[in-house]
Amino acid sequence: MTTLAKVAVPLGALLCLVPMVPSWLALLAGIAVAVVLGNPHLAGTKKATAKLLPYSVVGLGAGMNLSVVARVGASGIGYTVAGIALTLGIGWILGRILHTPRDTSTLVSVGTAICGGSAIAAVGPAIEAKSQDMSVALGTVFLLNATALVLFPPIGHRLGLSEPQFGLWAALAIHDTSSVVGAAMQYGPEALAVGTTVKLARALWIVPVTVLFAYAHRRRHAQTGAPTAKRPWFILGFLIAAAVVTWIPALHDAGKLVEAAARRGLVATLFLIGASLTKEALKSVGVRPFLQGLLLWLLVGSATLAAVVFGLIA
pLDDT tens digits for 88-143? Predict the structure, then answer.
């Protein structure tokens, strides 16, 4: 069993670089290896995760067109700020009520407020979250994503939502960009166009939210006398990569390749995060994070749907 585990961890990470492997499957495969076989490379996987995760986030910036994102984001900045703030606030309250571990609660709330796994991947290192916190938060988000992919299109049709309305709702209420694209694609081309642009504009809020949480984390460390937490340098890298590709059109195609490579790197990193989870850590966390994520998602989904139907946001 030990020999198999020694091979399974590096082999699994390499297989996750294959384009057909989705992020949720990589995370589940990593957790399965850790729980069933054990991870004899635990120290190595944690070290690799700490390096790969921020570099992958930087690479994702190369796929963002800041001009388009700024134009779309400016038109809905009011409800975007209000929506993110309310989601984080309600997530904090639910976390306190359910006694969800602080970092896990933060990551679930951030993933729901902005753009799922990408937001968790950015904020996690900034607050120095443990592997089990990231694993549980990511697992919660991916499960709810899969549910939304199936449920949202029939709900939209039942309520008679137009394609732009559905695209807007999907962008605001579904966690990950890939799932927004999947749900909107089923609904129609206009829904896809609206959903994708609004979600990309929302994704840029990863930057200020990560900086905010990093600042709060550093202050908490300073007050308790703990070693100073690292600054989230990779967020600056994310912005630089996005700016370079936006303002040098000749690098647009190269930026897409960098983004694709970064996404594969992120998927492999999710496998390593899952492989770093231990049975003891899984038991200690329990079902509270999932309950928090589910309740928060239901509240956000219902509120944004009502706002779209009654024309409060458009």
Answer: 999 999 999 999 999 999 999 999 998 888 889 889 988 988 888 888 898 888 88
> Rounded to an integer, what distance in angstroms lies between the CA atom of residue 277 and that of residue 105?
17
| Among the listed residues 8, 15, 2, the one whose alpha carbon sits nearest the alpha carbon of residue 31 | 8
Asked if the model's pLDDT at residue 72 lies above 80, the reply is no
- For the chain, which residues make up each domain, given as ranges? 62-265+283-309
Task: Compute how many other C-beta atoms are within 10 angstroms of the C-beta atom of residue 4.
Answer: 13
Distance CA 168, CA 44 (A): 42
DSSP 200-224: HHHHTTHHHHHHHHHHHHHHHHHHH
Q: Which helix (H) or strand (E) holds 116?
A: none
Determine contact, residues 64/263, Cβ cutoff 8 Å.
no
Answer positive or negative: Cα dihedral of 294, 300, 302, 305: negative
Residue in the block written with tokens 């209000």 = 82
Please provide the DSSP assignment of 239-257 as one string.
HHHHHHHHH-GGGHHHHHH
Q: Which two tokens stand for residue 230?
A: 């690292």
**Helix (H, G, I), strand (E, B), or coil: what is residue 229?**
coil
> 């070693």: which residue's tokens?
227
Q: What does the DSSP 8-state code read for residue 286?
A: T
Is the dihedral angle over the CA atoms 270, 213, 68, 165 positive or is it negative?
positive
Give residue 239's pLDDT.
Answer: 83
Model pTM score? 0.79
Residue type, 140: T
Please name the amino acid found at residue 17. Answer: L
**Cα(110)–Cα(121) distance, integer angstroms:** 10
